[in-house]
Amino acid sequence: RDLTLACINALNTILIGVANYWKWPANAEKNEFAKNEYNALRERIMLLQNKIEMGGATFDQVLGEIELKMNEIRKQCGAPPLSIEQKYHNEHWLADYRKIKQLQKMKDGESPSRLGRLFRCLGRLCCACCSGKDDNRAQKNRAE
């Protein structure tokens, strides 16, 4: 029992040392602060968007205010790590690629979704092709 507690204590000490060496708590705090600042900026953008729509501000004024706030956040928190920026850009481009592929499949009539089948049915002006069971029934009715 004493040996188990000593091993757990040693493991805990090693983990605390690694965490302090890599400064994980400080990075977590910095990221939390940045998250809160960007969330506040997003809310401010929504308000400014409404202000533009109501004619209370011009786009140039709003853009200038947003750029100032973003620069302030970057000065306080620093730029995001390059790996995170690359991951974001990759996800963004992959999302566009996935949408294009999905549209191509829908255009070609290969969409496995119910909506894709509905579009094909409307294109042919028949509802019997929406499911395999209805196709079988239609073929049996034709045979009789």
Largest sheet: none
Order of helices and strands: HHHHHH
Mean pLDDT metric:
77
Structural class, by secondary structure, is mainly alpha
**Distinct helical segment count:** 6
Low-confidence region ranges: 125-135, 137-144
| End-to-end gap | 81 Å
Total count of strands: 0
Shape label: flat
Q: Cα-atom Rg, whole angstroms?
A: 29 Å
Q: What is the percentage of strand-forming residues? A: under 5%
User: In which range does the helix fraction lie?
Assistant: over 70%
In words, what does this structure look like?
The chain has 144 residues and is mainly alpha-helical. Helices cover 83% and strands 0% of the residues. The chain has helices spanning 2-22, 24-53, 59-77, 82-108, 114-124, 132-143. Helix 2 (24-53) runs antiparallel to helix 3 (59-77). The longest helix has 30 residues, at 24-53. It is flat, with a radius of gyration of 29 Å. The relative contact order is 0.05.
